[in-house]
Specification:
alpha+beta; 2 helices; six-stranded antiparallel β-sheet; 6 strands; about 40% strand
Length: about 130
């Protein structure tokens, strides 16, 4: 069986930020950033969960979006933030990436962008 989509499944950005500005342990700030990042991309947040690992420790957060998700995990002791942005269809994750970049001001970053499901339009079940 062959299935055809009228749009691609989406774009997935994986980001690593090093030597970030202070605040990697701020759960409230992460919650606001996740919501702002979703809104900047025109995505609709269904739920946002953030966990604070305690004073001086990191935080982890997840925004469940109607269009997929944004997640972030910090290590303040390393000055490091890892996060990903996966948006379905033609939505552009760049505005969300910029929200994180402006807040954390990394000295160094590595960004990987993956166009998801490119083979899916030709085969049912993705890459099977």
């Amino acid at each position: 069986m062959t299935t055809s989509l009228n749009h691609r499944p989406g774009t997935h950005v994986l980001a690593d930020f090093w030597d970030c500005a202070p605040g990697l342990d701020d759960a409230d700030a992460l919650r606001r950033l996740l919501l702002s990042a979703a809104e900047a991309c025109g995505a609709r947040a269904i739920d946002i969960k953030v966990h604070d690992f305690g004073e001086g420790a990191g935080v982890t957060g997840f925004a469940l979006l109607a269009e997929s998700h944004i997640s972030a995990h910090s290590w303040p002791e390393l000055g490091y933030l890892a996060f990903d942005i996966f948006l379905c269809g033609d939505r552009d994750p760049a505005p969300a990436l910029d929200i994180f970049r402006r807040h954390y001001r990394p000295a160094r970053e590595e960004i990987r962008r993956v166009e998801r499901g490119l083979a899916f339009s030709d085969r049912a079940g993705g890459g099977r």
